[in-house]
Amino acid sequence: MFRSISFVGALLCALVLASGATAGNLSLSLNLEFNTLGDQNSGGTWTVVAKAEERGLAGVVMRFPDGSLNFNPATGFLLSPDFEIKQSGVFGIEFEIVHADDPGLGATLDVGVIGGTYPSTYVDDPDLAIFGANPDLGSFTGGAEVVTGSFDPGDIPSWISGAANLYTVSGSVAAAENVFLTVRSIVPEPATFALFGAGVAGVMLLGRRK
Fold first, then answer.
1. What is the pLDDT of residue 20?
2. Nearest Cα to Cα of residue 60 among 29, 93, 23, 97
3. What is the pTM for the complete model shown?
4. What angle (nearest 5°) sits at the alpha carbon of residue 28, between those of residues 26 and 33?
């Protein structure tokens, strides 16, 4: 089962955690969109998207370096009202976010399961690309947006770790066997780069004619 030192008490009160049991895999993508495409120092927005196996996400703990992102609990939890547990806070050098379902109020199945029963409108932006040396976990289209926020110029969000519970095929709750993490960002189309270059060249040419 996943354990968060900071929020384990709250989670144990709301989740039925299976001791030692494991389920399938969960993949999480931290999607970045810079305010100025191509400028990594321009700040922007971030969104965590999940794709899950078995009967979907039951709860997730996400840890990031403190100060690398901005998160507003009033607007940042995207699985609400279906996921009733919403916690966030700073602990040492980490910023932690917990978002989970309370099966006592009715299990919400297939969250993040591509092609599952949980309604999803999420589609990967065609200009999303792997950021830096992060792994390619494939398409997340049909997955579920979990949390979102913003980041300041010069601060690029990154992962510390993630842990999760999944609903199993039988409807019980168990720890995800693996939680895979990646970071992706929206990059300018090649045509945008070409137009930008043409614009710079034009400005330089006009400067020379003066």
1. 62
2. 97
3. 0.84
4. 165
